[in-house]
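Q: Okay, next protein. This is Xylanolytic transcriptional activator regulatory domain-containing protein from Vermiconidia calcicola. I've checked the sequence twice, so it should be correct. Can you predict the 3D structure?
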Amino acid sequence: MSSDDGGHLSDFLGAKATQLPQSMRALGSDQRQQSPTAIGQQEQPPQAILGAGEPPGAASDVSDPSQHHAGHPSRSQLPCPDTKSPSQLDSNEAPWERLESPSQSASIDDRGDMGGYHTFQDDIEYWGPRTSMAICSQAGCRTTVKLEKRPTKERKEEPGLTDSLRFTHAYFEEAPDAALGIVRRSCFEARLRSFWASSEAEDDPCWYALRNVIFASGCRLVRSGEKGYTEAHRESWSYFDNALSVHAELLYFRSSVMGVQALTLMAYFAEAVSCRMLQYMLVANAYRLACGQGLHVQPAPSWNLPEEEKSLRQCVFWAIYCLDKQVAVRSGRPSLIDDEDINCPLPTSERSDGSVNVRYTQACIKINHLSSVTRKMLFKASAWRQAPRHLVNNVTTLQMKLEELRASLKLQCQIDLPMNITKPPAGLNMQQALSIQFLYYNLVWDIHTTLAHPWFRGVTGLDRHPDFQVQISQSCAIVAETSRATILDSRFIQLDANCPMPVAYYSPLYAVVNVFINILCDPSGAAAQSDLRLMDVASGYFARLEYTTDSQWSVPLVKDTATIARTAVGNLSRHPGHIAQQPECTSTMHPALPSLNPVYEPGMDDNNTSTDQWLDSNLHDDLNLEMWGIWQPGSGGESYTTDLYPWNS
């Protein structure tokens, strides 16, 4: 497999010169009144989308979008994108395709503070757009985001040779991040045996941190099967504490690629559902150290690196890249890595010791790269100064890129909606297949909830423009379809202390929120009853999560939202006359389109309890539902009234 396999993502700037449907070309009167300053966009000449392996100037045939959506009727009607070239993107090359020195991207002004936050005494913990922490209680945030006590100065005694090899074997055979090739197994095991055979003390902090973080990961895997969740976390954390004790030495003393490996593994260790969320800072430190070692660029011939070393450097860097992009999406905070600064090639070589799965690694890289492009096109400050038509066009462009990506991944790993357990992807285990599946779902949502979530359409004014309703309706259908698939796929999650938090918590919760919104937007819809049953399935999954984690992860909100949704559907069926009158401006909307206006007008239920009273008595006091708006970029807590452009006020 060659690095040319990434060609499907080689040109994110262009779109084929096709005409939009009439419904997508016309602009509403409100749009025509916007000033050029407010819109901040100019039309660009049409460009062509290049297919994989095509030379510049050879355009692939994308005039019929249905060919990209076979088997998915809800996607087949997506309009072709406009011929605008998004100004946010600085290059039409994927970073691994750059063989010259990387160019510096133009700086983009950061947008105003539209995110959420929690306060702890005198401190503020900021969570930006799209973070699941927005709907967590204060107690939940307090127990997950930071360490509560100083690390002990006493270090845990390292395991003997037998346990060291046992933990090492468990890491390379079972750890979720082992397949990314961050560490070469044969080299590590050889040095470990030499370390135990030597009578001389070794004080290299890089080697000390590396072996202890692998002991931590392996110990957690072994003890999960022997002693359960809490004990597995307690014992493994002691070894992680050992690695963390030399953190400052890794950063500020003379370091090496091994130091980058250690920090990267520490960041991935913290991805587990049993850990505090320390990966935000750890992966940032790993990236800084990696740049100091030149891992982000293609090695110069004068470096005289052997091919094995080049392959290792590629794997380490792209592991950092993938985690940085995932953390940026989940936290709503900026990514540290600018794609324009890197030209590291994709890993293409398998290893004789089996310590890298190239198929899995490339799939992770490509999905996270498209996620990075999505952030630039939809979430950056410059993206929020464009007209609604350009925003809709960016969504349709990204959807085409998403389908191209999915088609390319079919050769590497299978993405079904939901997963087909009878046909596992070749070369991937269930854990890897589920990770790829959920990464794909998250990317779909990050693209399409921009149009599907009602509070975002409200602040951008898209609900006032009937010209965009076909695309909005299609985005709603895509979000609903993939969210249902995620809830069904949750039955395949192996919950224990090692399960990655994005798989165990973030993706299922994101899906629940999407299905919940879909029900409330149209409680009389044909899918409402089946969606209610899916909400019950999700409640059962989160009950299993709470049980498995010894109540560390308790998410009563899922059961609350299921109850709220069932109440909305039940009230509508009992009181069909309580249908809210829609404003005249929505009369031309697509009939399947959810709007900002409630379909059910709150009244009295059979127990003479108003909807507001029911909510007050059934929701937890410390849940801040006003923060739900930050699941969308550009909307703060008061999502219907916040000024979209605070810098213009």
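A: Here is a summary of the prediction. DSSP finds 21 helices and two strands in the chain. The beta strands are 116-120, 123-127.
Q: Noted. On to the next one.
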